């Protein structure tokens, strides 16, 4: 029964985003600057991938190659340990890119097919305590050190015991209430705890294997914590499920849970609570949460595009001498978050369906495993 259910979820995952992206294409078709998709056939692609891909040009702009951990570098702007410091991701053309929006959720191989591993963006290296995070409200979403009342924040509890970061192209929607949790999301990308042996540096991207998930309730918001391990870690070939972590690395998951339970106590706040009787949930459930948050991210971006199109339609009704200059913004604000504007979708849309195909395939494999 559970196998059939998960296989159905996999099919739903693929269909849901095909429908969502079709909505984006339909809405854009009504405007002069439209998103165009090539047919999802091998003949149209000139290859055997069969993956729906965008046209190679969008509004006169060249399609950019998908980001990966192999073609990313970091660019530190501003002085260390200041409120102004930002760490940007740069591609191999030396252009700054968004780790939240431009980086695919799933790693792809040389043939442009998902490998089954997920791109993990490291914000806080293990054995450190500075509270770095993606700046979701700033264009290009650099990584910055969090601040409160003008003071840089660090964990008063001490150093963190694991590499901490997030998955790109995910968003915990405050308006989405999981039926088994009862509260909405925390308005951030999906958090990840990487439990491998090596320290991963801030702004570094690594392909990871997903193992399980913990649901923390933080000040009335759902704050999911995915447990994952670096693909190249010595333990990766032995850890295939959350139960393997308990069996082979006893105490690891308890330490993570206790960290999140008490890390705000030194700030005078109460202990955090957890859903699901404080239990870690398996890989199949984790993939469902990843699908929910990836679909929420797609809705967030789609909403920003529709908003831009409405403004464009209004501007076109104005007399020629009062029409504004063509927008060249790459980012716009939606729900107080910085997301790609229409002109920037050429950097994003190319691998949306690859991410969905990767999720659907992973769900199917989890149901059979």
List keywords for this structure.
6 helices, three-stranded antiparallel β-sheet, alpha+beta, 369 residues, globular, disordered N terminus
Explain this structure.
This protein is of the alpha+beta class. The protein has six helices and 18 strands. A five-stranded mixed beta barrel has the order 7-12-13-15-14. A three-stranded antiparallel sheet has the order 3-4-5, with no helix packed on it. Helix 1 packs parallel to helix 5 (283-316) and helix 1 packs antiparallel against helix 6. The longest helix has 34 residues, at 283-316. It is globular. The two termini are 14 Å apart.
Task: Provide a compact summary of the structure.
By secondary structure, the chain is an alpha+beta fold. It contains 6 helices and 18 strands.
How many strands appear in the DSSP assignment?
18
Largest sheet strand order:
7-12-13-15-14
The string of secondary-structure elements, in order, is HHEEEEEEEEEEEEEEEHHEHEEH
Low-confidence runs:
2-63
Which word captures the global form? globular
Helix content: 25-40%
Terminus-to-terminus distance: 14 Å
Tell me the Rg in angstroms. 21 Å
Fraction of residues in β-strands: 15-25%
Number of helices in the DSSP assignment: 6
SSE class: alpha+beta
Average pLDDT reading = 79
The biggest beta sheet is recorded as: 5 strands, mixed, barrel
Describe the SSE topology.
Elements lengths: L1 H28 L12 H4 L11 E2 L2 E2 L10 E5 L8 E5 L5 E2 L8 E3 L5 E11 L7 E3 L8 E3 L1 E2 L2 E2 L10 E4 L24 E4 L10 E14 L2 E10 L11 H7 L3 H11 L10 E2 L8 H34 L14 E4 L2 E4 L11 H17 L1
Parallel strand pairs: 13-15
Antiparallel strand pairs: 1-2, 3-4, 4-5, 6-7, 7-12, 7-14, 8-9, 10-11, 12-13, 14-15, 14-16, 17-18
Helix pairs in contact: 1-5, 1-6, 5-6
